Design the sequence.
């Protein structure tokens, strides 16, 4: 489910309002890029509550989002509010599996900040939780909905620019270069490669750290 899908869902059922709750953690991943505020732009979404383990962060979030019901424990929020959709905002992944599992078991759909997981085993655990509870999870890779990307994809699919031979992407290449550029910011670029060409059949990669090079292939 993309942001465009959310808008379409809202437009398709003008009389329906979806209860939305947000999970953040100020100081430990915060709220990502608008995972908390995006819901106020969608007419059929009712933002009902926010959870944040930081007392100061929770007070600020409640004021920012205009919600009166705030929780220090997101599990308590899920139990009491029974939201239909939950935004998981923290960019840190130390609590990612637990948050996704709790939301899925509460029966709510998930819109989540990237990256998806720290390890493949974490990813498998979250996918299993989502499938087992029959809910949807969307990572915030909204570059797919850019009019420029959509038009370029249509041109590629129609063969207007010939057969694609190679795709190159570049990160921010500033102080965030390295792990942050690859895991957080670079995940958009990896997703765009999948958007244009589909899922890879195999990959080869190398990472250089302090002059030492390690390689991996799958």
Sequence:
């Amino acid at each position: 489910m993309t942001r465009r899908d959310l808008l379409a869902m809202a437009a398709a059922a003008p009389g329906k309002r979806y209860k939305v709750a947000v999970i953040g953690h100020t100081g430990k991943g915060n709220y990502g890029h608008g995972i908390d505020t995006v819901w106020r732009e969608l007419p059929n979404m009712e933002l009902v509550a926010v959870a944040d383990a930081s007392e100061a962060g929770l007070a600020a979030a409640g004021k920012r989002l205009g919600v009166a019901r705030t929780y220090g424990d997101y599990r308590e929020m899920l139990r009491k509010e029974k939201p239909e959709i939950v935004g998981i905002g923290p960019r840190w992944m130390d609590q990612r599996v637990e948050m996704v599992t709790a939301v899925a078991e509460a029966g709510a759909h998930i819109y989540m900040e990237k990256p998806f997981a720290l390890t493949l085993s974490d990813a498998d655990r979250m996918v299993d939780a989502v499938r087992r509870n029959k809910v949807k999870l969307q990572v915030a890779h909204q570059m797919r909905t850019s009019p420029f990307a959509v038009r370029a994809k249509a041109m590629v699919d129609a063969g207007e620019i010939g057969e694609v031979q190679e795709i190159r992407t570049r990160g921010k290449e500033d102080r965030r270069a390295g792990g942050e550029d690859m895991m957080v910011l670079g995940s958009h670029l990896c997703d765009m490669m999948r958007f244009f060409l589909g899922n890879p059949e195999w990959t080869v990669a190398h990472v250089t750290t302090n002059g030492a090079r390690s390689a991996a292939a799958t």
